[in-house]
Amino acid sequence: MTDAEWQNLYENFETTRILAAVDSVDSLRDDLNDRDHGAPPVIRDDLLKLHQLAMAVVNNGARRQAGEFFELAGALEDQVSGMMEALEQIRDTLSDLVALYPESLDYADESDE
Question: What backbone phi and psi angles, to 5 degrees, belong to 41?
Answer without folding.
Answer: -60, 150
